[in-house]
């Protein structure tokens, strides 16, 4: 049984933070450093939640309910929805880490939490890829864009993206499981309990599928789109005056900066099956890279406000409209209340006069 637990222990994926557990090879100084990393990663998670929930909620509110429905607002709406859903589940993971990696929420939430995290990652990168392709076609092939770039076609693409992201996140629902380990319940990937080779093969396949489809292919696509835009759009004024170009580019760069370390450490983690020389590096790197990846979910709304002048104008106009409407309601309510009080006073005076 102990051998089985040790084998399963080596197979926990990044989202379970298995490498945070004490290792016999870890000295006291390294354990102290890992304790600092543990708290820094918790700060990153909490920052992502505190900043991301209201930020993405505002984007969803304005793009979904207040602003005119366009293809571009549809992309950003779904990108915000993906981040918002993930952040709603983040307190479960914060509790998991804060309780020294004890999962008291049951196997169903273990599966759901991991699935939502994977769904967010794939949906975000797929929507960013679609946005980049949309920008490229819109600026370099305006006739083609005008003919096919419709809300109806965009809705079809949105549905396809969500279905594809759900399919890519599906293995979490199948493999994720809970296990009693060192007086704790851990949430981990149960690839195969009795066949280490089969377990290792599944870990490699799922990791490389995640890296290739969820990172390398989108990265290559987005890079080609923006390089073509830079070289093909010869009139710089056309590129600079593009309403959404720089905002989208900033969002893509934020995604790459936040998710690149995560995927690099995911690949590096595969080597621990054969060589544990850099075990302590993974113990420190995986929590920080995962925290940085989570932080990406709160960055997009901040980038919209800081970079997009159109978003700023629309946001201020919408807030002003809401405040104006709220003040109008308060004013009307006060007027009605005053009228009711006057009416009641008048009726009382008439009653006293009649008596």
TrEMBL record:
Q: Which Gene3D superfamilies match?
A: Rhodopsin 7-helix transmembrane proteins
Key word Iron-sulfur present in the record?
no
Q: Name one GO biological process term.
A: positive regulation of cytosolic calcium ion concentration
GO cellular component terms, A-Z: nucleoplasm; plasma membrane
Q: Could you tell me the gene encoding this protein?
A: CMKLR2
InterPro entries documented for this protein: CML2, Formyl_rcpt-rel, GPCR_Rhodpsn, GPCR_Rhodpsn_7TM
Similarity field: Belongs to the chemokine-like receptor (CMKLR) family. Belongs to the G-protein coupled receptor 1 family.
State where the protein is found.
Cell membrane
The regions listed as transmembrane in this protein's record are 36-62, 74-94, 114-133, 154-175, 208-233, 245-265, 285-307
Q: What is this protein called?
A: Chemerin-like receptor 1
What are the protein's GO molecular function terms?
A: adipokinetic hormone binding; adipokinetic hormone receptor activity; complement receptor activity; G protein-coupled receptor activity
């Amino acid at each position: 049984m102990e051998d089985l637990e040790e084998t399963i222990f080596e197979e926990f994926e990044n989202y379970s933070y298995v490498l945070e557990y004490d290792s016999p090879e870890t000295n006291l100084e390294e354990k102290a450093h890992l304790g600092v990393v543990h708290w820094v990663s918790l700060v990153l998670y909490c920052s992502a939640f505190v900043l991301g929930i209201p930020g993405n909620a505002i984007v969803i509110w304005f793009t979904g309910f207040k602003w005119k429905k366009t293809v571009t607002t549809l992309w950003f709406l779904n990108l915000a929805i993906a981040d918002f859903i993930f952040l709603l589940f983040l307190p479960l993971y914060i509790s998991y880490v804060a309780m020294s990696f004890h999962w008291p929420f049951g196997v169903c939430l273990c599966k759901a939490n991991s699935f939502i995290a994977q769904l967010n990652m794939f949906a975000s990168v797929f929507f960013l890829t679609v946005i980049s392709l949309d920008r490229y076609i819109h600026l370099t092939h305006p006739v083609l864009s005008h003919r096919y770039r419709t809300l109806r076609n965009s809705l079809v693409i949105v549905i396809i993206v969500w279905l594809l992201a759900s399919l890519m996140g599906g293995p979490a629902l199948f493999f994720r499981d809970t296990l009693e380990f060192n007086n704790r319940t851990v949430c981990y990937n149960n690839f195969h309990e009795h066949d280490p080779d089969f377990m290792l093969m599944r870990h490699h396949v799922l990791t490389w599928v995640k890296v290739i489809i969820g990172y390398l292919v989108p990265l290559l696509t987005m890079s080609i789109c923006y390089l073509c835009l830079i070289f093909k759009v010869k009139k710089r004024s056309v590129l600079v005056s593009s309403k959404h170009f720089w905002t989208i580019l900033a969002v893509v760069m934020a995604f790459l900066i936040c998710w690149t370390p995560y995927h690099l450490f995911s690949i590096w983690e595969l080597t621990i099956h054969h060589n544990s020389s850099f075990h302590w590096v993974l113990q420190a790197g995986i929590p920080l890279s995962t925290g940085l990846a989570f932080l990406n979910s709160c960055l997009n709304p901040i980038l919209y406000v800081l970079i997009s002048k159109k978003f700023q104008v629309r946001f201020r106009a919408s807030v002003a409209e809401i405040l104006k409407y709220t003040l109008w309601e308060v004013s009307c309510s006060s007027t009605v209340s005053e009228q009711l009080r006057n009416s009641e006073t008048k009726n009382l005076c008439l009653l006293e006069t009649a008596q």
